[in-house]
Design a protein that fits this description.
The chain is built from 15 helices and 13 strands. It has 413 residues and is an alpha/beta fold.
C-alpha cells in the first residue's frame, strides 16, 4: 500500500463577497479533487485543539498523526531541528522573521507591520542580514542562525519558555506597539528587536532592495519559542518508510522528528511562484525508490490568505489540482495496474487562513480520503468546506484521522 498525504496549507476559508459569497475551494476549477471526492470518504476534522494556537506547527503535527496536546513544545525548536541545529535540553529556540516595518515615523513602537516576509527576501540576502544581527547581539549561549528566506532562528540557553510572543503575520498593517514583547523575561528580546532596525535600515542589501522597489528587511521579529520535542518515529508506530516534501523549515523539522526523510525541491519557494511540477515529480520519485508514505506540503494557499490575494488563492488551488495531484494520482494508478499495489490519498488543509482575517483560525477543515481498494463511504460531488460538512463525518482530533488513514489501509493491504 502506498500513502500520499497532500497538505494544502491554509486552503480552507470563509465565504468571500467578491466570489459571490463562495469560498476559494467552491469556485476553483479542480476536476481531480472533485473526481476523487465523489468516490471517497469525506468529512471534517479539527486539526488544532482549542487550548492551543492555530498555527501551522500545531496543525501539521496533528495531521501527521501526533496529538499536539501531548507532543507540542513550541514552533521554533521544530524549525531549528530542520536547520541542523543540535538543541540541548536547556536550549530555547525562537523564530526570527526578517520583516518590513513602515517608515512613516522614527519611533519604533509606532511603526506598522507592512510585510512579515520582506517580499520573500532571498536566502542569500537574508543570510547576510542575519550575520549582521548575530555580530551585534550574539554572545555565548545566545546565537542567531540563518535559515531560508525570511525564516531564521535564535537559540537562547536557559532562555524563557513561558510568555506570549505574537506572530508577525497576525498583525499585518497594525501598529506594533501593542504586540512587542511585554513581559520582563522578554525585555532582552524587545531591546534587540528595537535596535535591529538601526542596524538593518541602512544595510547595503536593504538600500539595494529599496532601489529595486522591493520591501526592505528593516527589522527582526522574534516569536514562537519552545524546547526540543520528543516524537516517536512513524517507522515504530506504523511500520512505514516516509518522506516529507516542502519548502518550509517547520514542515521539514516535523518530518525529521517523525523519522521521515526530508526532500528539498529546487525552485520550491512556499509561495504561488513555487515549482509545483517539481514537487509532484519529487513525490513520484520517492514512491519509485520504495517509500511507503509521502507527506507533500504546499504552502501557497496559506501565503495568499495572509496577503488577502483572492484571485491567487483560487489559482493556487487550481495549480495544486492540475500540476500536483493529477500527475501523482496517474502514477499511483498506473503502478497499481502494473503491480497490484493499492494506494490511499488524504487531501486536506492544515487550518483555515481566511482572506478576510489574514490569519489562521481554529475551525475544522474539509478532507478527502480516497482509497483504490474500497467503495466510497461518504462521497461529495464537490470538494469544499460546505459539502464536506454535510456528510456528518467529523474527527474531533485530526491525529485520529491520520491513524484511520494508515491503519485502515494497512488492514486492507
Amino acid at each position: 500500500m502506498k500513502y500520499l498525504l497532500l497538505l494544502c496549507d491554509g486552503m480552507a476559508d470563509l465565504p468571500v463577497s467578491s466570489l459571490g459569497g463562495k469560498t476559494p475551494m467552491d469556485v476553483a476549477h479542480k476536476p481531480n479533487m472533485d473526481r476523487l471526492s465523489s468516490s471517497s470518504y469525506c468529512g471534517m476534522a479539527r486539526t488544532v485543539p482549542l487550548s492551543l494556537p492555530p498555527g501551522s506547527d500545531t496543525a501539521n503535527m496533528s495531521v501527521m498523526g501526533y496529538d499536539p496536546e501531548l507532543y507540542y513544545t513550541g514552533r521554533s525548536p521544530i524549525e531549528a531541528i530542520s536547520m541542523g541545529i543540535d538543541l540541548g535540553e536547556d536550549d530555547v529556540a525562537f523564530r526570527v522573521n526578517l520583516v518590513t516595518l513602515s517608515d512613516d515615523t522614527s519611533v519604533y513602537d509606532r511603526k506598522r507591520m507592512i510585510d512579515y516576509s520582506s517580499d520573500e527576501i532571498s536566502t542569500e540576502e537574508a543570510s547576510e542580514l542575519i550575520k549582521a544581527i548575530d555580530a551585534n547581539f550574539g554572545e555565548s549561549g545566545f546565537r542567531f542562525y540563518a535559515g531560508r528566506s525570511y525564516r531564521h532562528c535564535l537559540i537562547w540557553e536557559n532562555g524563557p519558555v513561558k510568555g506570549t510572543l505574537t506572530p508577525p503575520h497576525d498583525i499585518l498593517t497594525k501598529v506594533i506597539s501593542g504586540y512587542l514583547p511585554a513581559e520582563p523575561a522578554h525585555k532582552k528580546l524587545r531591546d534587540i528587536m528595537t535596535s535591529s532596525h538601526d542596524i538593518l535600515k541602512d544595510h547595503p542589501i536593504n538600500l539595494e532592495r529599496i532601489n529595486k522597489g522591493s520591501n526592505p528587511a528593516n527589522s527582526i521579529w522574534i516569536w514562537g519559542q519552545g524546547t526540543k520535542p520528543e516524537m516517536p518515529p512513524i517507522s515504530l508506530s506504523y511500520g512505514l518508510k516516509g518522506s516529507v516534501i516542502s519548502a518550509v523549515d517547520l514542515i521539514f523539522g516535523l518530518g525529521i522528528c517523525a523519522g521521515m526523510t526530508p526532500v528539498s525541491v529546487n525552485g520550491a519557494t512556499g509561495t504561488i511562484h513555487t515549482d509545483f511540477a517539481g514537487k509532484a515529480n519529487a513525490a513520484v520519485a520517492e514512491f519509485e525508490r520504495g517509500q511507503d508514505y509521502v507527506y507533500l506540503h504546499i504552502e501557497a494557499p496559506d501565503e495568499c490568505g495572509h496577503r488577502n490575494e483572492v484571485e491567487n488563492k483560487v489559482l493556487s488551488i487550481e495549480l495544486i489540482d492540475k500540476i500536483v495531484l493529477g500527475p501523482i494520482y496517474d502514477h499511483l494508478e498506473n503502478n497499481r495496474k502494473k503491480t497490484g499495489e493499492d494506494f490511499r490519498i488524504l487531501i486536506m488543509p492544515d487550518h483555515p487562513t481566511p482572506l478576510s482575517l489574514r490569519t489562521h483560525t481554529h475551525e475544522p477543515v474539509p478532507f478527502i480520503l480516497y482509497s483504490s481498494c474500497e467503495s466510497p463511504l461518504a462521497p461529495v460531488s464537490v470538494y469544499s468546506e460546505k459539502e464536506c460538512s454535510r456528510t456528518g463525518v467529523f474527527f474531533e482530533k485530526a491525529h485520529l484521522l491520520f491513524d484511520y488513514f494508515i491503519r485502515e489501509g494497512t488492514e486492507k493491504s
